[in-house]
């Protein structure tokens, strides 16, 4: 019996060992299969990511080639298609809010009737109407300066700066700031009473404060699209590669650890980003209070990090419409002080070869401005003709406006290219 029991125990032990070996082999085969499948999935994911990255790079290069001087026909076609899409989209949104449309139409008709109806209110209404149009004009120019449709139209250099310079020259020539209204500000006529003691830098700044602050407020409004774009992308989880500005921000984030490889412009952008991110309201205020061509990145950064709207817009409005505008006004007023201009013209003669030649057009420009201001209430003085500086400035203005229009066409064409490829890629992902 004892021998039988030993045999039985040995047989049971042998069967248990065989069962254990089978189970271990099965588990090992499952682990190997799982490892193989995981490796295949990982390889497929990497291949897919590489393919997507190459596709996006090809689309980006193709989009960058959509400019009028490389592909004019396709660029113009895409421009009109994008305009058609935008008009259709926003038209449907407007029609969907019929109550608001009705209120706006009634308000416009009421204002039109009020402005054009005769009565004792006419003088007050006309004054308010003219002042409102004047403010809207400068706000619109400010928006065009910073809205970012490809590039901004530098309306300070083209419009506001010359306006402040004209008022400054007129103030010193007329020895008064009480220009008759009308025709001021469309035209400047020297008043009959002179008050030389009232002409100071502060008095001239006060004379042009309204248009300067309206222009500054317009530039603040023009900074809102990048902020809203980045904020919407962060909240909705849009891929940064789908937007060039967001992709630039992501690339800067990756380059933070390798600052030796950064260019000077990239260092400036990172500096602005760090100020806005760490300091908050006062960082945005500091960036908005100085002439800053990289401020678009501040708006994108604030939107990306979900900075509250009033923190961003309040700091931008104060910085651009109050602090920055007073600095720019002060610079222009000092630069166009008549005595300083005459001194500068005299110093031009020390410039080798071209100094004496430059004195002639600058003197002609200054004399021409004085002739314009030597006017009585209705008498006009013949203006200086053939001023080369005036001709150059007119051509410069035309060139800047043409460049702005071309940049808008290129920007809209590239936007339509991005739109159609986004739809195509969405369809492929669904399939």
Automatic annotation (TrEMBL):
<feature type="compositionally biased region" description="Polar residues">
    <location>
        <begin position="34"/>
        <end position="52"/>
    </location>
</feature>
<feature type="region of interest" description="Disordered">
    <location>
        <begin position="34"/>
        <end position="59"/>
    </location>
</feature>
<protein>
    <recommendedName>
        <fullName>Vacuole membrane protein 1</fullName>
    </recommendedName>
</protein>
<keyword id="KW-1133">Transmembrane helix</keyword>
<feature type="transmembrane region" description="Helical">
    <location>
        <begin position="396"/>
        <end position="413"/>
    </location>
</feature>
<feature type="transmembrane region" description="Helical">
    <location>
        <begin position="95"/>
        <end position="115"/>
    </location>
</feature>
<keyword id="KW-0472">Membrane</keyword>
<feature type="transmembrane region" description="Helical">
    <location>
        <begin position="135"/>
        <end position="160"/>
    </location>
</feature>
<keyword id="KW-0812">Transmembrane</keyword>
<feature type="transmembrane region" description="Helical">
    <location>
        <begin position="297"/>
        <end position="318"/>
    </location>
</feature>
């Amino acid at each position: 019996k004892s021998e039988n029991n030993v045999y039985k125990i040995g047989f049971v032990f042998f069967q248990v060992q065989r069962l254990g070996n089978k189970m271990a082999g099965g588990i090992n085969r499952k682990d190997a299969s799982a490892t193989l499948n995981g490796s295949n999935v990982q390889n497929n994911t990497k291949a897919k990511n590489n393919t997507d990255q190459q596709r996006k790079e090809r689309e980006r290069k193709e989009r960058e080639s959509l400019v009028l001087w490389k592909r004019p026909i396709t660029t113009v076609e895409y421009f009109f298609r994008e305009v058609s899409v935008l008009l259709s989209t926003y038209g449907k949104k407007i029609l969907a809010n019929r109550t608001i449309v009705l209120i706006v139409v009634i308000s416009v008709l009421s204002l039109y009737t009020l402005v054009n109806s005769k009565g004792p209110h006419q003088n007050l209404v006309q004054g308010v109407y003219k002042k409102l149009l004047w403010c809207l004009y400068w706000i619109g120019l400010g928006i065009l300066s910073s809205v970012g449709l490809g590039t901004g139209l530098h309306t300070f250099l083209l419009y506001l700066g010359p306006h402040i310079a004209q008022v400054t020259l007129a103030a010193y020539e007329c020895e008064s700031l009480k220009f008759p209204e009308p025709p001021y500000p469309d035209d400047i006529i020297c008043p009959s009473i002179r008050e030389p003691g009232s002409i100071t830098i502060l008095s001239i700044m006060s004379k042009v404060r309204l248009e300067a602050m309206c222009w500054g407020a317009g530039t603040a409004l023009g900074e809102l699209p990048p902020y809203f774009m980045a904020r919407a992308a962060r909240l909705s989880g849009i891929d940064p590669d789908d937007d060039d500005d967001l992709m630039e921000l992501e690339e800067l984030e990756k380059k933070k650890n390798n600052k030796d490889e950064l260019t000077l412009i990239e260092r400036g952008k990172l500096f602005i980003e760090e100020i806005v991110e760490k300091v908050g309201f006062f960082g945005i205020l500091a960036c908005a209070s100085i002439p800053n061509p990289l401020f678009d990145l501040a708006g994108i950064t604030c939107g990306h990090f979900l900075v509250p709207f009033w923190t961003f817009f309040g700091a931008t409005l104060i910085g651009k419409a109050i602090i920055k505008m007073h600095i720019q006004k002060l610079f222009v007023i000092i630069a166009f002080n008549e005595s300083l201009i005459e001194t500068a013209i005299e110093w031009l003669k020390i410039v080798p070869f071209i100094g004496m030649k430059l004195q002639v057009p600058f003197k002609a420009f200054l004399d021409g401005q004085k002739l314009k201001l030597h006017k009585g209430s209705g008498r006009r003085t013949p203006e200086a003709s053939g001023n080369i500086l005036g001709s150059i400035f007119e051509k410069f203005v035309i060139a800047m406006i043409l460049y702005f229009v071309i940049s808008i066409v290129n920007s809209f064409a590239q936007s339509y290219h991005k739109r159609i490829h986004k739809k195509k890629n969405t369809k492929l992902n669904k399939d």
